[in-house]
Amino acid sequence: MNVELKQNLNVLTANFSVMYMKLHHFHWFVKGPHFFSLHEKFEDLYNEVTGYMDEVAERLLTLGENPISTLKECLELATVKETKRIGSDVEMVQEVIDDFQSIDQLLQKTMELAQNEGDEVTNDLLVGISASLQKHIWMLRTYCG
C-alpha cells in the first residue's frame, strides 16, 4: 500500500475520532431557541462520523494495515482540533462546517491516491463519505444563513 494513502486513511480515522468528541461537546452545550433541533442534529452527526471512523479503520485492516487506535495517536495525527469553547449555536455550526470542509479536502486527495493505486473499493468508500459531508455542509450553511 502506498505510504501516503495509508497515512491519509489514518488521518481520516483520527479526524473522525476528534469530530466524535467535538460533536458530543456541541450536543451537550448548545443553548438557545434552536436547542432541540441542534441537540438532535449534533447527535445524528456524531453517530454518523462514528460509522465513518469504523469503516475507514476497518478498510485499513482489510488492506493488511494497522489503523491508529489510541486517543493519543488521534490527537497527534488529526488535522481537525478539539474545542473547549462554548459559543453560540451559529458559531458551533460554523465550526462543524469548517471541519467538514477540511475533512472533505483530505478525502478528495485520498480518493486520488486510491485511484492511482487502482483501489476502487477504498475510492468508493471515500466517495460515499464525501457525498454525505458535502450535503451536510450545504444544509448547515443554509442554517447559518
- Number of helix segments? 5
Compute the average pLDDT: 98
CATH class (first level) name: Mainly Alpha
User: In the residues, how many domains can be counted?
Assistant: 1
How much beta, percentage-wise? Answer: under 5%
Distance between the termini: 43 Å
Query: If you consult CATH, what is the topology?
Result: Ferritin
- How would you name the oligomeric state of the polypeptide chains in this document? single chain
Helix/strand class: mainly alpha
Using the alpha-carbon principal axes, give the shape.
Answer: globular
CATH-wise, what's the superfamily?
Answer: Ferritin, core subunit, four-helix bundle
Low-confidence runs of at least 5 consecutive residues: none
Which sheet architecture does the biggest sheet show?
none
Name given to the CATH architecture: Up-down Bundle
Give the total of beta strands.
Answer: 0
Fraction of residues in H or I helices: over 70%
Give a summary of the structure in a few sentences.
The chain is mostly helical. It contains 5 helices and no strands. It comes from Fervidibacillus halotolerans.
